[in-house]
Write a structure and sequence with these properties.
mainly alpha, elongated, single chain
């Protein structure tokens, strides 16, 4: 029993240390020796639990996904409208990115290890379903299609991660990513134009001046 508890503690310490190293240095920049040193255990103990770096990276990604799913299950139990839940979901995801090394590491590892499960797979289906309900309930403008708002959510979460990776460790007084995202959501919900909405040009549309010059 004591050995089992010690093994569980060691495994947990290794996953935690690996998450911190993968988050800071990426998959290629992290070694089992570095993880061993951070965790304070022998390299033999590392390979006993995780024979290769692949096994350890898999465990970290799974832990990050589990932490995310637990948070979303807790959020889903609350009574709120679909659109409100989508907003709160993005704030919760951002909080996890800000506070949980396993989540940040899972995001980075899914990018650096092609073929592994993306972190967004844990929450995107929930977002799509909620936005479809919000659209059906009349919470969204008729032009705000669920697929487009889902894309907005993906951009917001990616932006939150990019902000964190740029600022974390550089200034202890930097603005919380959660607080920043709240302001961005307020702007998105209110809108930015005081005039009639004007759609941007398509990126692949021919330049009008060039088109006229060719006539």
């Amino acid at each position: 029993m004591v050995k089992q508890e010690r093994a569980v503690r060691t495994r947990r310490a290794l996953v935690k240390a690996a998450a911190e190293e993968f988050d800071r240095f990426g998959y290629d920049g992290t070694s089992l020796a570095a993880i061993s040193k951070v965790a304070g255990v022998s390299i033999g103990a590392v390979t006993f639990h995780f024979p290769t770096k692949v096994h350890l990276a898999d465990a970290v990604q799974q832990e990050g996904r589990t932490v995310t799913l637990v948070a979303l299950e807790r959020l889903a139990a609350e009574a709120m409208t679909p659109l409100r839940m989508v907003i709160d979901l993005t704030l919760e995801l951002t909080r996890l990115m800000e506070q949980e090394p396993t989540v940040r590491s899972a995001i980075r590892l899914s990018r650096e290890r092609p073929g592994t499960e993306a972190w967004s797979d844990a929450w995107l289906p929930m977002v799509r379903g909620l936005l479809e309900r919000a659209y059906e309930n009349g919470q969204l403008h008729t032009d705000a299609l669920p697929a487009d708002v889902t894309l907005l959510v993906e951009h917001l979460t990616s932006g939150a991660e990019a902000y964190l990776r740029t600022r974390m460790g550089s200034d202890p007084a930097f603005e919380s990513a959660v607080a920043q995202l709240k302001r961005v959501w307020r702007l998105a919900l209110v809108g930015v134009s005081a005039e009639a909405p004007t759609l941007p040009r398509q990126a692949d549309a021919p330049d009008q001046d060039q088109e006229e010059a060719g006539r």
